[in-house]
Design a protein that fits this description.
Number of helices: 14
Radius of gyration: 24 Å
Membrane topology: Peripheral membrane protein
Main location: membrane
Helix content: 25-40%
Family: Belongs to the glycosyl hydrolase 79 family.
Low-confidence stretches: 1-18, 435-458
Number of strands: 26
InterPro entries: GH, Glyco_hydro_79
Distance between the termini: 30 Å
Protein name: Heparanase-like protein 1
Structural class: alpha/beta
């Protein structure tokens, strides 16, 4: 063991020999789960914004809209297929101005155009059934799981600035849904409206009327899918407002809204110069937990048949930050928020966007993956549904999340080091044997040397020969530049192959009983396939 520990020190990054680092002990409680995500927890959005959508003297959408993106680009298909499957949410700000080219539309089917009198400065826009067919070709060929956002303003009238009243006119949406069913296009869930909850963004609708309209939508779903598996009905696709959300559940009643979708943009505006600093501020990152916790309680009290979903989250709003959202640094916010949301029973987390704006998982022009794409893919492949409780002390700049393992059993641990100059030496223990360890004189917060001296496996209650292995995936920035567009996995750049395929993402195998070194400004996924966790 002493010889192995010397080899470990040699193999650790050379930074550890010259940098300060703190000892941290993470205790994983594997006897029961505290929450559960869905199989398609990782989700990405496709939006309606046309090329003329501009913010802060830039127009970052190009041809990345539902209406004009290149659906035949092989990089797009390969990026979706790699998740096997990826949930895609089709929707966005212009969703409530979209009409569908059905037989009784009664007007020409035209795309969005600039219009000062329209919501968000655009006219109504239309999707042809030919385009919808082409989109479904992509979805079917890639195995995507689809959530589609319906226009919830159709038929309403503006009664005062920002407030719309009257009942929803479902006729155009129902014809679109009928066509979708007739073509056997699989829809996992129909979402009703976008950012109309509470005071709304651009427009709002009262919760009581919204709840009545959702009952009408559920009846349409029941009728169209009478003899088949019924898609879920989701709502409201807006920012959390406790009173509004509670009333919506009360009015719509049991088993109507099966997913309460809410939006999060907690980093500020896309041109805010403090976005980067907020990403590395643990106190700022943690504040969003209040929203997750409050929504979870609202659902438990008013609609236990439902569940929380993050229907859209892009970090910085108004198309994201051009200097941050498509860089390595953004993964610190993104992965941390995935971890926080999962702890509060969030079933799905939809990232704004798959492609489009500055915050796309794929580059808007080239379709080449940005760093967050690989972060999402690693989470999807490694972090299972079951969420585990952990205890750990030490610096607040180290974030830690534990789930049941997805593919190999055991557990998967996500470690995020927000510190720019302090590494962390992390010892992982199973709560099954913490008492035994303390009886041997090894205490919580024990040093690196003590951690290497122990003779009991920390992955379970049974004695071990010390040969168990764990798998480590360390993510760092190319050239140490936190704003790099290329991310390294265990020192190797994550880049498409010559054929445009997503590269293999191999871990390094390490003795399970050794501590984990998490370098400054780095992220580590660590899989313990032999970890004894009854809940998994």
């Amino acid at each position: 063991m002493r010889l192995w520990s010397l080899l470990l020190l040699v193999c650790l990054p050379t930074l550890i020999l010259s940098e300060d680092y703190s000892d941290v002990t993470v205790i994983v409680r594997g006897s029961k789960t505290i929450a559960a995500t869905s199989d398609e927890f990782i989700c990405a959005t496709l939006d309606w914004w046309p090329p003329e959508k501009c913010n802060y003297d830039q127009c970052p959408w190009g041809k990345a809209s539902i209406l004009n993106m290149d659906l035949t680009n092989p990089l797009l298909a390969k990026a979706i297929q790699a998740f096997s499957p990826l949930r895609i949410r089709v929707g966005g700000s212009l969703q409530d101005q979209v009409v569908y080219e059905t037989p009784n539309l009664g007007s020409p089917c035209r795309p969005f155009t600039k219009a000062s009198s329209g919501l968000f400065g655009f006219s109504k826009g239309c999707i042809t059934m030919e385009r919808w067919d082409a989109m479904n070709d992509l979805f079917l060929n890639t195995g995507a799981v689809i959530t589609f956002g319906l226009n919830a303003l159709r038929g309403r009238k503006q009664i005062r600035k920002g407030v719309w009243g009257g009942a929803w006119n479902s006729s155009n949406a129902q014809e679109f849904m009928e066509y979708t069913v007739s073509m056997n296009y699989p829809i996992d869930s129909w979402e009703f409206g976008n950012e109309l909850s509470g005071s709304g963004i651009g427009a709002s609708v009262g919760a009581e009327q919204y709840g009545k309209d959702l009952v009408a939508l559920q009846k349409i779903v029941d009728q169209l899918y009478e003899n088949s598996s019924k898609p879920l009905v989701l709502a409201p696709g807006g920012f959390y407002d406790k009173q509004w959300f509670a009333m919506l559940l009360d009015v719509s009643g049991p088993n109507v809204v099966r997913g309460m979708t809410h939006h999060i943009y907690n980093l500020g505006a896309g041109n805010d110069p403090h976005v980067a600093n907020r990403i590395l501020d643990p106190q700022h990152l943690s504040r969003v937990s209040d929203t997750f916790r409050d929504l979870q309680l609202t659902i438990q009290r008013h609609g236990p048949w439902s569940a929380p979903w993050v229907g859209e989250a892009g970090g910085a709003y108004n198309s994201g930050s051009r200097t941050v959202s498509n860089t390595f640094l953004d993964s610190f916010w993104y992965l941390d928020q995935l971890g926080q949301s999962a702890k509060y029973d969030t079933k799905v987390y939809c990232r704004q966007t798959l492609i489009g704006g500055n915050y796309g998982l794929l580059d808007t022009d080239t379709y080449v993956p940005n760093p967050d794409y690989y972060s999402a893919l690693l989470w999807h492949r490694l972090m299972g549904n079951g969420v585990l409780s952990i205890d750990f002390g030490g610096t607040s700049y180290l974030r830690a999340y534990a789930h049941c393992g997805k593919q190999k059993g055991g557990i998967a641990l996500l470690l995020i080091n927000l510190s720019q100059n302090m590494g962390s030496m992390v010892t992982v223990r199973n709560d099954l044997n913490v008492g035994l360890a303390q009886g041997q004189g090894i205490t919580r917060g024990s040093s690196f040397v003590h951690g290497l001296k122990r003779t009991v496996s920390w992955v379970g209650s049974k004695a071990s020969d010390g040969l168990e292995k764990r798998e480590e995936y360390h993510l760092t920035a190319q050239d140490g530049n936190r704003f790099a567009r290329t991310m390294l996995l265990n020192g190797v750049p994550l880049e498409l192959t010559e054929d445009g395929d997503i590269p293999p993402m191999y871990p390094v195998q390490v003795s399970a009983s050794s501590p984990i070194y998490v370098a400054p400004l780095s992220i580590a996924f660590v899989v313990f396939p032999d970890f004894e966790a009854d809940a998994c």
